[in-house]
Amino acid sequence: MSCGLGAVILIFLIVKHNVDKGSVEADIVLAELETLERQERQLRRQVREIGERSAGERELGAELKQKLRDIERTIASLGQQMAAQKRKNAELRSAMEKDAARKAADVVPDESVGEEQYLTGLEVEGRRVAIVVDYSASMTDEKLVDIIVRKNGGDAQKRKGPKWRRTKKAVRWLLNRLPEQSEVAVVVFNDTAKTLGAAAWNNSQDRAAIGALFTEIEKLVPSGATNLQAGLNELRKLRPQATNIYLITDGLPTKGVSKPSFLSSCRSIFGTSGNISGECRERLFRAALQGSAPRGGAKVNVILFPLEGDPAAAPNFWNWAAVTGGLMLTPAAGWP
Q1: Is the alpha carbon torsion for 236, 185, 116, 248 positive or negative?
Q2: Residue 24: what are its φ and ψ, rounded to 5°?
Q3: Which residues make Cβ contacts (< 8 Å) with residue 118, sequence separation at least 6?
Q4: Residue-wise pLDDT tens digits, 197-233
């Protein structure tokens, strides 16, 4: 019995040991399984993240490609614009070269005048062009006080007047734009009037004759009153008559020649001193045109420089020019 009991106990111990050992191994396997499952979940998450990242990268790549295409189109457009601009530059350069060639052939060269074209619409034209220049005392300055100062100064000071310098440049501007097949005469006036040059009419392409005209203008000293009628009477002496007239002045006349009845109250017009009202200047202007206006359908163009205190000048000269089919222009301060 003792032997049997011992055998039973031994068997019991052996069976229990195997059971415990199996349980431990099951726990290990379970732990490894949980680890693997966790790793699987991590891998799946990583795969998902990589997939999402790949989709974002694909989208970003598509955006970058679109931007690249936009940039390429912009570059192509800019290239076309640059090509067009180059063509324009080439055309402008060609025009400038042609203009430079023309300027080199100016009858009276003057680098200071340049090629300003501020007088839009004014074209020097006609078979016989008469340039009529006012060189009265007011043609030195714009303001009356400055005119008076220069009037009381010497000849050199009068010639340096800013308006007179502009006047001479305007004459040069006109002389350099005469038509090739034309003749020109220059009439100047203040109290009296005269025609410059050895001959009344001069060939527009005769450098010596045109240069001599301008030399005489340089010698003029702006002084005296503004006798427009005297200038018009001198103009009418030209044979043959002018077809186109370019008058350079700054205001209505202050002296006259004829004495119509409507000027009887404006005594200072025909005297040697005294002031003249704006109303009398307008009357005097009408009298000058009534008695001495150019005949033969000549077109009159007026370049009117500024003068303080003569507001009626512009409308009166404008009306006269318009009636003849010409222009009245008040040039910009920088012209010519």
Answers
A1: negative
A2: -65, -45
A3: 331, 332, 334, 335, 336
A4: 888 899 988 889 888 998 999 999 999 999 999 999 9
Q: In 3D, which of 251, 227, 257 has the Cα closest to residue 307?
A: 251
Q: What are the structure tokens assigned to 218, written together?
A: 């340089």
How many other CB atoms sit within 10 Å of the CB of residue 52?
A: 10
- In order, the DSSP letters of 143-208 are SHHHHHHHHTS-HHHHHT-HHHHHHHHHHHHHHTT--SS-EEEEEEESSSEEE-SSSSSEETT-HH
Read off the tokens for 157.
């000071």
Is the pLDDT at 181 greater than 50, yes or no? yes
- Helices 228-236/278-292 angle, 10° precision: 10
Q: How far is CA 25 from CA 28, 30, 145, in A?
A: 5, 9, 124
**Alpha-carbon gap, residue 134 to 251, rounded angstroms:** 9
Question: Residues 168, 162: contact at Cβ < 8 Å?
Answer: no
pLDDT in tens, 133-152: 999 999 998 888 888 988 88
- How far apart, in whole angstroms, are the C-alpha atoms of residue 101 and residue 89? 18
- What confidence score (pLDDT) does residue 115 get? 46
